Amino acid sequence: MPQRGAVNPHAILSRMHRPPRFIIATPICDGHDVAAAAITRILRAQGAEAVYVGFNKSAYQIAKAASEEDATGIAISTYNGGHMSFLREVLAEQARQGIPHVPLFAGGGGTILEREVAPLLRMGVTKVYRPPLDLAEAVRDMTSLANDAAHEQPAAVGNGAAPFRALAQRLTDIEWNGAQPAGSHADGRPLVWGIGGRGGAGKSTLIDELLLRFLRSTDGRVAVLTADPTLGDRLRMVHCYSPRVFVRSVSVGPGDSTEAKTAPLVTELRAHDFDLILVESVGLGQNELGVAPVADASVFCMTPEYGSDVQLEKEALLRRADLVVMNKRDFPQAEARYARVRRFVGDNERVFLTEAKRFGDAGVTALFDEIAQRSGLLPSLPSKDERARTVGWGESPPPVPFSRRGYLGAVVDTHEAYYAEAEEEAALLASNGGASRDYQAEYDRVWQTYGFDGDLSGAVVEDGVAYRETPNGRVPIARETTTGIWTPVLGLPDRDASPRQIVRYLYTQNLPGAFPFTEGAYRFRRRDEDPIRMFAGLGMPETTNSRFHLLAAGHGAPRLSTAFDSLTLYGLDSDEPGALAKVGEGGVAVDTLDDMLRLYDGFDLSRTSVSMTINGPAPTLMAMFLAAARKRGFDWKSLRGTVQADILKEVQAQNEALFPLEPSLRLIADMTGYMMREAPGWYPLSISGYHIGEAGANPVQELAFTLANGLTYIETLRARGLPIEEFTRRFSFFFTSGSELEFNVLGRVARRVWAVALKRCYGVEGPGLALRFHSQTSGRSLQDSEPLHNLTRVALQAEHALHNNTNSLHTNSYKETYTTPQEDDVLLAMGSQQIPLVESGDFGYIENLNQGAYGLTYLEAEVERAVHRIFREIDQQGGVLPAIENEYFRTAIQEEVQRERGAMRDGRRRVVGVNYLTSRDGARPRGELVHIPMKAKRSQAARTRAFKREHAAEGEAALERLQAAAVSDANVFEALLDAVEHATVGQVTHALWEVWGRFRPSM
Description:
This protein is α/β, with parallel strands linked by helices and 1003 residues long. It folds into 4 domains: 1-179, 3-Layer(aba) Sandwich (Rossmann fold), CATH 3.40.50.280; 184-391, P-loop containing nucleotide triphosphate hydrolases (Rossmann fold, 3-Layer(aba) Sandwich); 407-508, no CATH class; 537-906, Alpha-Beta Barrel (TIM Barrel), CATH 3.20.20.240. The longest helix is centred in the middle third of the chain and has 24 residues, at 407-430. It starts with 10 loop residues before the first helix and ends in a 7-residue tail after the last helix. The model is unreliable at 1-14 (pLDDT under 50).
């Protein structure tokens, strides 16, 4: 190895004869990876090598990856604030990792301000990209600058903090310049293990779990060489950031020989002080050996989906592998397939059945023990009893039973049968052929109760409202406008509608509050309570509490919507190392029960509806809220509100998942079951399409994915024995209200699809049939260029939401692309929904003004058919959970993002102030920007540390009880209620990571 501190004489040359290689990432506690993923795709399309290491990455993780991959550039996409401090830390870590010369690029929409660009450049950032520059242009510029830097600057070799730096450079020189590898390994034990198999067998996840066991069992060092055309394997490895782990990616494309590309690199790795070397092969065909020829021993990774037994004869690596792994044990018939492979191989001791995605899987542990014993890492092979030990979350049935995997296809079949039935009934009624119901009588009763044809005789008129006395009480039937015109409260088809019209109306529309709930979950809009629910979170609990009181002023029954800062969203505390800049950015910092008490201080929680937008740590925050309410003396049965808790959309789009999917779903079920009993007025699961839309999905995708997720929750909760009538009535939903045409009917279609599915597929009869949803205007549509136009956008989108009869509504501030709203901004945003609601008259007289319009009726049908098509696609994947594993959702969203970007580039999509009717001088009012003072951040961190000291003994005991519940059949949420009395959000997260493992992303 070259002497430390010396200049590698091959460094410049190695960069001149290789494609540029970029590390792409988003910062710690930032899950906005749409731009990062798009940049990765564009770089690859332009011939560069792009290693996407993922979202929520620390400066150390990014710099370590760049050093080991010998990157020629680092690109950071940052959207959550705190970028000044974070980028400074990345630069410092680059120096520590021996790569201060590697160009650092940054972008983040409007988050990085124009006035911050110059200080960032002086700090050492190479280039900052801001709107309206197109991503493709940014990538071309990045590539050019990175190539120039690679030609001009030599690279310093590693130091004590970066022991692998010189090795990384050496591998580049060998791969691209034909340098000869040094030395070889010859002590007789298998040092290099090749891991091969078909694509999709779970090799990267398996290697990551082997890394975890290596780090826990030994003090040695391990190297991983991954061969993959997309360089995407590092993304799946969450345990590769230990200083004892070295990972290098090798691009092996079509026509490349895996053996030829990896052999010299493996030879070089043998010359270094590694105790184990793992080499992952690209997905193989049946007659390929991959990396087996360059390894001392090999592992063949397969799944139960190998086809017929004849296919086993064709697997070249299966015949010669030292060990065989059948991964994905959760697949139906896996045990039987495993037995057949063991018979084929003939040596039962070398065949392992695993489920690598399951933290602490006993099969993976047994595999590691075998590898470690053969490689001399363990003095002796553990006993079979020890090898069978199960840690982590253990065995459990799948969240959705295999027998129910066709639930989405069944829903589509049911809908199609429902509409066919409607047409048959209409034909029978029209021909007097004996329909199954007396539709004419039903329709007559509707008219007799709610109909208004201009005749006020017999009505009771009070304060401009005409009422009809009915056996069930007084019903409003008409209202007088300011010009003296009397309009119906509920618009209905003609009194003398034809039989066909009547049946179609009752099947597809009906009254608001009546099945299938197309027009609304309730009969009438509330006149005593506006749907306003403004999202707020401003730094510290005390400042957010003040904002809440401002928003609640004048509202007898306040509706609070809580935005948490990014640290809280990722289940971390304000004293998390390296994350002080993130404290209070974009929301409120809540670490402890004391913070929760400060946040809602002064509110009568029995009369206040509280919404918490929190996902991965949602059960922890829910437990804290209940504990705070109890300390304030409120009966839990009087509490109203909702917590988002939707983990499915996190793994599909928003990236704020903390734990693997299965234990996350279990925790949601435990929380739902507990809340049903103890806090029945609360909605413990808000199923969110909004963040799917913000990630880039189009309106139809957002609707279809969200409803599919809702149906998946039904399947998982039913499988855990919860009563469907009870939990579905406590579901709520959250949708975008955007500018696209489809948003005119999104809420209508959502309610109808949901109601028909639940009634006809699941037999629900109660309140759960009526889908209730919150709306938020589209954050993605807000533009940093000429932001005053955002006021108009938001008002238009608010009207869409109100016409869809949303149950509550948040309207964005026009400044939200670049700062947290101030008080005046929030009041303007409130006005954008209050003016249409109060002043326009659209919602004050006829409550279903648009129902039955020809254009909207057609659009409803087409959107519903499009939802059915997407349901069919997901059904073909085996349902939502297998589709997540197959990356169906992320792929669909990314393709939509690319389509939209293309439409913006070529002008097919016009956006005022961006690519249409732009201002000549570009001037735009900004106003003051909101910054959380560093003093306040430090104070919050200090309070959290003090809480930990004060509750150290009780907290440790409570966390041990929580972990015990997590690995048993106990209700984990009940243990959480105990834990949050003495433990912080971050302590709870770390405790569950220890027994459940961390969420592993994909791309």
